[in-house]
Amino acid sequence: MHGLMMNTPLLISSLIKYASQYHSDTQIVTRTLEGSIRFSNFETLNERSKKLACGLLELGIKSGDRIATLAWNTDRHLELYYGISGIGAVCHTLNLRLSDEELIYIINHAEDRLLFFDNTLKSKVENIKPYLKSVEKFIPISKTKDLEDIDSHYLNYENLLTRKITNFDWPVFDENQAASLCYTSGTTGRPKGVLYSHRTTVIHAMASCLNNVLALRVEDVVLPVVPMFHVNAWGIPYSVPISGAKLVMPGDKLDGKNLFDLMDKENVTIALGVPTVWLGLLDHMDKEARKPHALERVIIGGAAVSESMIDRFEIDYGVNVHHAWGMTEMSPIGVLNSLKPKFSKLTRSDKMPIKLKQGRGIYGVELQIVDDDGNELPRDGASSGHLLVRGPWIISNYYKEKKSALTKDGWFDTGDIATIDKDGYMNITDRSKDIIKSGGEWISSVALENVAVGHDAVLQAAVIGIYHPKWQERPLLICVPKGDNLPSLEEINKFLSDKIPKMWFPDAIEWVDKLPIGATGKVVKAELRKIYKDYKI
Ligand code: ADP
Q1: What ranges do the domains of the chain cover?
Q2: Helix, strand, coil in percent for the chain, rounding step 5
């Protein structure tokens, strides 16, 4: 017997419609690429998105057509999110840090019909333009009259938004319709497309607002440093409108000083991003000897956060750090770390091992760890295995790939190795391809990196496995120093001696000026493995 309740489709347009009715004057603040600050609000966002939708329909854009964006976090990019998906087309966010070759591959694979881009990226667009097979029009998203005049392939963005919208309402269609497309960064093989639906996006947005997830409140001021081309800025453009919080978009100025000034001026209470972006902010906070005044929480995910980073935020400035984990294939949120009340009385040093874990599963995401043969492992915080996930906002198939992305039992294998403890805290010990297999033991490169950055002389650290005739693999520690002090391997290992098993100590250390950072802000271990492939230890 079916229930007898309405079956209203969960559409992305409902998010902005709601915000424009109930939080109409809540601000959206953008640092434009020219550097000035632009103020908008949810009512204006709804109106301009509708105008854009009408402009797209007039251009002949149909349901299911892919429309690419190559842009930073701004209010204009938000209009594209809503205007494109709102009419059933697919908003395909392109990672602007990818090489020309990767972008050409992805755009041709997605068969994008239009390409919207930030003017500052014009030369990139010009470089790839001759190789794009499906793109009909290129549309810079700020003042661009000159471009339209010189080349008929360009369109003026504001001209697209001149339609009258008095008779336009967001169309209603099947909630399973595709809404947005994001390619994985291709660290393993060619990039693959993850195609989110309206339903998955809306459910993920609702779950993100929950108190034990991002706990977004109407009083919050939210700044996504994580780019809108990195898994839809972790869903912030969709979750913030229904929470009614104020949204602050940093544009392309993500250095410590610019972030600090914007956060300070706009009273940002919560900011989100990968670990590397916080180093610059923390250094600037040290310089100013204070935090951006309203900052309460930072959500750090995408790569493991170190104890020293948590300490700098929490001890030095009283800003709470929440570790989080997810992936492109998971829309992206999988777990988020908040302490269960029973841990509140623990000392700081007893709390730390719990805080360093990626977090507890949130409603909607099932987690399981299994051994190499697929047998489920106990949730004892010690057994580590392949991390599998299942849930309503997790991928089933990659775009244009016939083969299911799931195991025969319907789980998605994340490629991560993890433990889960009896309280449900999941801890990533490694990516399956990064774990160092030494003798019979698995050495977690992530754990080793985390303790290494706790040393005073170490700014950043990466660990890779190097071939060893007896042990099969041994760890090489590659560090960026903080200053001129370059401690020896013995000194570093002495520092590590009460923190990790002796078997895990690195066999060698290399000091470098910088680590290779990929398009999503993470260290590219594949690159390091190439550089050190003939390294002898
Ligand atoms: P890509 O896989 O293309 O780098 P994703 O953003 O989808 O991009 O990355 C997901 C992966 O990033 C996860 O499978 C995991 O290995 C890693 N990751 C994400 N968050 C964390 C975290 N908090 N700690 C450790 N690793 C993380």
Answers
A1: 12-253, 323-431, 436-531
A2: 30, 25, 45
Q: Using CA atoms, how far apart are residues 487 and 294, in angstroms rounded to an integer?
A: 38
Catalytic: which of 184, 269, 414, 429? 184
Q: What is the CA radius of gyration of the chain?
A: 24
Write out pLDDT tens, residues 99-136: 899 999 999 999 999 999 999 999 999 999 999 999 99
For CA atoms 134, 197, 392, 183, the dihedral sign is positive
Mutate to test the pocket of ligand 1, among 327, 435, 453 (most ligand atoms within 8 A of CB): 327
Whether ligand 1 lies within 6 angstroms of the CB of 184 is answered as yes
Pairing of strands 458-468, 178-183: unpaired
Q: Which of 102, 175, 329, 449 is catalytic?
A: 329
DSSP letter at 376? B
In three-state form (DSSP H/G/I as H, E/B as E, the rest C), the secondary structure along 5-21 is CCCCCCCHHHHHHHHHH
Q: At 304, which amino acid appears?
A: A
**102, 194, 305, 416: residue to mutate for ligand 1 pocket, most atoms within 8 A of CB:** 416
Annotated catalytic, 442? yes
State if pTM tops 0.70.
yes
**Within 13 Å, how many C-alpha atoms sit on residue 459's CB side?**
18
Give the pLDDT of residue 149: 60
Q: Give 133-153 pLDDT, tens digit per residue.
A: 999 999 999 765 566 666 778
What is the CATH number that goes with domain 436-531? 3.30.300.30
User: Residue ranges of the chain with pLDDT lower than 50?
Assistant: none
Distance 455 CA to ligand 1 centre (A): 24
Name the class of domain 12-253: alpha beta
CATH topology of domain 323-431: Luciferase; domain 3 (2.30.38)
CA distance 453 to 309: 9
329: annotated active-site residue: yes
